[in-house]
Amino acid sequence: MGIISQSIGGRKLCAPTVTDFVHNVGANCVRPKGTLSKRKSLTDETRQIDLFFSPHPDRQITVDNLGLLGQIALKSPLLEPDRNSPTRADVRNCLSKLTAVFAELQRQAKRENSPYNQENLPRLWILAPLVSETILNGFGAALDPNWPEGVYFLPPLQRTAIKLNGFYFGSPI
Asked: With 0-12 CB in 10 A as exposed, 13-18 as middle and 19+ as buried, what is 128?
């Protein structure tokens, strides 16, 4: 996006950024092999989250009386139920909704000049009767010993979980 400059001994030295390198040198290398578009605009479609829960700040949610649903509800979950086994595209679409929510929360924090607390970001829950091992392994999902059987978590920065074996949220499952 620009030139990085550094002063050494009163002389200003400039070095191209990685972005400049990719736009200039890298682009010239791949251009003969196909079509190259610089700064391609994305026009995203309007998407809907099936369920988005925000806990009321004055009310305490307790895991004791809500079981797994209480655990899920503690962190402003996005719930995406699927009556079938989700495909790779289904999981990616759910992840893109979560990313859009993150971006909106970041813009809101910037507008309100308030901190953007990444620890309080919502978690996506994909609820499905079954999910193939190919999908679970492909997205890096793993069981967490602190959660009931059938709850798989994607790597931490993705803030996503997949709940299997039906939609029973009472305690025990």
From this structure: buried
Residue type present at position 9: G
CA nearest 167: which of 95, 75, 83? 83
pTM, 2 dp: 0.72
Place of tokens 């004791």: 64
Give tens-digit pLDDT for 123-152: 999 999 999 999 999 999 999 999 988 999
Q: In terms of C-beta density within 10 A (0-12 exposed, 13-18 middle, 19 or more buried), how is residue 125 classed?
A: buried
Is pLDDT at 4 greater than 60 in this prediction? no
Which parts of the chain are beta strand (E)? Answer: 3-8, 11-16, 51-52, 78-81, 124-127, 142-143, 151-153, 160-163
Nearest to 161 by CA among 144, 90, 87, 54: 144
Residue-level pLDDT at 86 = 94
Structure-block tokens of residue 17: 């950024």
Q: Is the pLDDT score of 69 beyond 80?
A: no
Query: Could you give the CA distance from residue 96 to residue 87 in angstroms, rounded to a whole number?
Result: 14
Helices marked H in 83-162 — which ranges? 88-111, 133-138
